[in-house]
Amino acid sequence: MKQQIVTKINGQQHVLQVSPRKTLLAMLREQLQLTGTKEGCGTGDCGACTVLLDGQPVNSCLVLGVEIDGREVITIEGLDNDGELHPVQEALVERGGMQCGFCTPGIALNGAALLQDNPDPDEAQIRRALAGNLCRCTGYVKIVEAIQEAARKWREKSATRTPAPEPADG
Amino acid sequence: MRSFEYLAPSTLQDALAALHQRENASVLAGGTDLILRLKRREQSPSTLVDIKRIEELDGLETGVHGLSIGAGVTMSRIEASAVVRQDYAGLHAGAATVGSAQIRNRATVVGNVCNATPCADTVPPLVVLQAQVRMSSQGGERRLPLEQLFTGPGTTVVRPDEIVVSVEVPLPEPGTGSAYARHSTRAAMDLAAAGVAVALTLEDDNETCRRAHIALGAVAPTPIRASQAEDILSGQALTPALVAEAARVASTEARPISDVRASAEFRQEIVRVLAARTIQAAAADAQRRQAMSRRSG
Questions:
Q1: Buried b / exposed e along A56-75 (16+ C-beta atoms within 10 A)
Q2: What are the structural domains, with CATH classification, of chain B?
Q3: Which chain B residues have a beta carbon less than 8 Å from that of A53?
Q4: CATH classification of the domain holding A10
Q5: What is the CATH number of the domain that holds A144?
Q6: A37: which chain B residues are within 8 Å (Cβ-Cβ)?
Q7: What are the 10-residue block averages of pLDDT along chain B, 297 residues in total?
Q8: ipTM (interface pTM)
Q9: Is B157 exposed, middle or buried, given 0-12, 13-18 or 19+ CB atoms closer than 10 A?
Q10: Interchain proximity A131–B2, CB inside 8 Å
Q11: Are B39 and A50 in contact (CB < 8 Å)?
């Protein structure tokens, strides 16, 4: 039997009827046509289905749609700011941090969450944060460069809005 | 996934009542293992009782008596806790090793314990830190040392009408340090082929081992203690030769199998290497904590 949930997706409130056995991933793609979120392995290993749940990256293939009742989800469709790309998206484009693009939504969201927590990550921290996002094309070098570039942009942006960010707690 | 009834009670009482009234109900916490098993139809419960809305299970409490890890506490919260990093270094290392950032944001410590996989990364550290498990049912509450929870791979003494509400870890006494290390083929997103956790209490001279606890993961049907290796260390100065001997004995206490991740022989050898490193790391952690407490005292 379907259950009613109330949830905020990409800033917009939705009242949805969901079957409990439907994953968040299936709900996003099939019910809301938010097909930017990809299904790779379906077992929580590849990260292609990454979304932000209350700001934190999670594998939407391992979350039930009913579990997000009252919670907030950001998908790749909601990462930009009114058409202005997020610094991570921008840097992925500029630095060639993608080839086929299948892993890119997950990497962009996970990278954005990383910068929120740690605006100045070193390479090891970036690689550790992205360990759950598999890319079979790039060899990761360009992706890591893109996140580093995005971090610089992110810090510049934050600096114009607010006082200099606190140094990251390693 | 077969269909099921989904309940998300907001109180422990309601959750326990639901488990009591229903046959074939499963408790859902982070879901990183359970939802996978539902998809593979390895498990097909008629009801899922989601416990993430229960506020009283969501606490990570730290205090003079120790650490209380509620059933809703994720690996990420353990990783982010300065207190856990400071006083429970082995547990911090175990939680930080699990899966990926995405998995750690969902997976819970209590879920890791309840799934009872022999390679669970938080279990050996919790065992050496002498954790207790608190279980509730409509009939009341009981507590067990974590070591006594497991009956085999994937099985525990937790009854179907019970919920593990928290894991309680006593504050390690002064002079105690802990560490955890594991080996896996890939650096991330892989299960442990073998894991070793050690907690050591040093005498005031900072060299003699008063007491040692050593636990091994992924090398037996359940996480096990290496008690002969512990005895070798107790009351002795931690010389390189003694550490090497304890590590050798620990590897003989492992009872590994050969599987897709490693052969039994390799696992045995890895336990020897990891045990030596982890004993040293736990001793260094004990000295670090000792120095901190002297400075603050």
A1: bbbbbbbbbbbbbbebbbbb
A2: 5-50 (3.30.43), 55-170 (3.30.465.10), 176-296 (3.30.390.50)
A3: 105
A4: 3.10.20.30
A5: 1.10.150.120
A6: none
A7: 96 98 96 97 97 97 95 98 97 96 98 95 98 97 97 96 98 96 85 94 95 96 96 97 98 93 94 98 96 78
A8: 0.94
A9: middle
A10: no
A11: no
Query: How many structural domains does chain A have?
Result: 2
Confidence band for A163, pLDDT divided at 50, 70 and 90: low
Taking the Cβ of residue A126 and every Cβ of chain B, the question of whether any pair is shorter than 8 Å is answered with no
Structural domain includes residue A18? yes
**Shortest Cα distance, chain A CAs vs residue B6, angstroms:** 6
Q: Which of B5, B38, B105 is the closest to A57 by Cβ?
A: B105
Does B1 touch chain A if contact means CB atoms closer than 8 Å? yes
For residue A168, being part of any structural domain is answered with no
Residue A15 lies in a domain: yes
For the purposes of burial, counting CB atoms within 10 Å of the CB of B254, is it exposed (0-12), middle (13-18) or buried (19 or more)? buried
Radius of gyration of the CA atoms of chain B, in A: 19
What is the amino acid identity at position A12? Q
Residue ranges making up the domain that contains A7: 3-78
Q: Distance between CA atoms of B54 and A52, rounded to whole angstroms?
A: 22
Q: Among residues A78, A99, A115, which one ends one of the domains? A: A78
Amino acid letter, residue B272: R
